[in-house]
Amino acid sequence: MRSYFKNLGAEISAERSDKGIEDDLHKIIGVCDACFKDTANAGQIEEVLNGIVSMLALVTGEKSENLIVAFCEKLTKAPSNIIGMTCLKVLWSLYQSLDTESPMRFHVYHALVILAGRTKHIDTVYKVRNFDPTPTAFTCLSVCSFCYYPKHI
Fold first, then answer.
1. What separation, in Å, do the N-terminal and C-terminal C-alpha atoms of the chain show?
2. Distance (Å, rounded) from C-alpha 144 to C-alpha 43?
């Protein structure tokens, strides 16, 4: 993964860190937006970013929280709708990979909403049932634990 980012021009060493996976991930996340330049290859971008999601699963505790927040911040800055949709998929994978009781789900969901709004795909996060202006008209898709309203069907 490091060599992929280095080949894209990112300032990252091709060698793994002696300090462990947390340091590696910190450095990789720091340059992961370099893949946004490769706009013709959204599939490869998704694979690489999902690789980061897989690596995040190996880290626990406070270090994990900082890495997840940093990763979400990078993905919400996707420069185009095509890359933004790719980042939405990756954020959704990250969200689904977290324990349902994890407080980090809020941060990831918040990033999902921000990015969905920027890419004009808020309907991928929320679905409106009929046109009822009351708050219960909105159905949260698989994320009601962070909804302000009771769970919906």
1. 41
2. 29
Write down the pLDDT at residue 130.
43
CA distance 98 to 25: 17
Residue 120: partners with Cβ closer than 8 Å, 6 or more residues away: 81
DSSP bridge partners of 128: 138
CA 130 to chain centre: 30
Beta partners for residue 13, in sequence order: none
To which residue do tokens 């997840």 refer? 68
Cβ-contact 148, 135 below 8 angstroms: yes
CA distance 87 to 131: 29
pLDDT at 151 exceeding the cut of 80: no
Identify whether the C-beta of residue 67 lies closer than 8 Å to the C-beta of residue 88: no
Which pLDDT band holds residue 127 (cuts at 50, 70, 90)?
low
Query: Whole-prediction pTM value?
Result: 0.80
Other CB atoms closer than 10 Å to residue 10's CB: what's the count? 18
Tokens of 126: 């929320």
Residue 96 identity:
Q
